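Chapter summary example.
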Amino acid sequence: MSFESNRFPSGLLRLIQIVVAIGVLWLLAPYGIVPAGTRGVMTTFGKPSDDVLDEGIHLRFPLAQSIHLLETRVQKSEGEGDAASKDLQAVHTRVAINYHLEPHQVAQAFKAIGPSTEVIADRIILPAAQESMKAVTARFTAEELITRRTDVREGIASLLREKMQRHGLVLDEFAIVNFRFSDSFSKAIEAKVGAEQDKLRAERDLLRIRVEAEQKVTQAKAEAESLALQRAQVLRPA
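The structure predicted for these 238 residues follows.
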């Protein structure tokens, strides 16, 4: 029996050889796979290609070339930021964003911004969203941010969409999750709403009283006319 056989049983040695062979084959595999919902960028000794790899199998030179995958499905991101309204009220805005990376611009985004869709979103979408929120919020008073919420949302989405398109990102959906104001302004709004409700209640009560009074006057006239008619019938000669 050999010295190697004493140290490694034949079964264990065989298993090690198989594992090493699989590792070498995987490392030297002359192909790469781009899964569904992604696109690939080939790098040769670290230099990225200008071509975008579609879904499927692609040949590559082992060790020299690598395939980097970027997600092109719709992704979701949330952001928030502080701004000032037209009447200088502090506003904290929280938004939700659905977006995706334009497939044909994957290679350019990879080279210019970052190695993954998540990195690209962090570097582009969040700063652009905060800048857009500040720009649009300044056009409206604090009260208008509430009463004209749709206009505010469309204004922010328009600016954000333009900024994202420059970097190969597409805005699919944009929503304002919440506006939060200072405590003093929130209390002032509550007081104003309460005053308006009291005013409406008083107007309804005044209208009710007026209608009831008119009803009483009408009823009194009818009763008076009825009494006058009865007297006339009594005084009429037989």
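To summarize the output: The first strand starts at residue 31 and ends at 34.
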